[in-house]
Design brief:
Length: 146
């Protein structure tokens, strides 16, 4: 079983959608999502993202935002960031001696360094979900080979 944490800025768009997309493909994995910021802690995913996700059969309604914590390095086998800034913010919290990998989601489709654009700002929820679903397929296929 794999344990994976998906991380974006506020945990109301990209990371909950990534969690749901991978959960749809691998319900047996231990999955969670978090944000590097604390603005939305306890809140449901953003309404327009929920609507776009629901249209694809991805249910985000039970998810609630939480903030990334240093303890997450010990809980998860891999931490998947939605962009470089999130990866840097995660790395800044890394405890000494902990080697949990932090990777970008798009690394799983051969787009090293490419961000998953934040639809909260771009308003392109469907385009974001297209990329998230491609990355979810790539991640699942990649871990199946390992």
């Amino acid at each position: 079983m794999s344990s994976i944490l998906f991380v974006c800025l506020g945990n109301i768009c990209r990371s909950p959608a990534a969690e749901a997309a991978v959960r749809q493909r691998r319900p047996d994995w231990d999955l969670d999502s978090a944000g590097t910021g604390s603005w939305h802690v306890g809140k449901a995913p953003y309404g327009p993202m929920q609507d776009a996700a629901n249209a694809r059969g991805l249910d985000l309604s039970k998810l609630r935002a939480r903030q990334f914590a240093p303890e997450d390095f010990a809980r998860f086998e891999v931490i998947v960031a939605m962009d470089e800034q999130n990866a840097e913010d995660i790395e800044a919290l890394r405890p000494d001696g902990v080697h949990t990998p932090v990777v970008l989601f798009t690394d799983h489709i051969g787009e090293d360094g490419m961000p998953v654009p934040d639809p909260y700002y771009t308003r392109d929820f469907d385009g974001c979900l297209d990329l998230i679903e491609a990355c979810a397929d790539g991640l699942v296929a990649g871990l199946a080979r390992d």
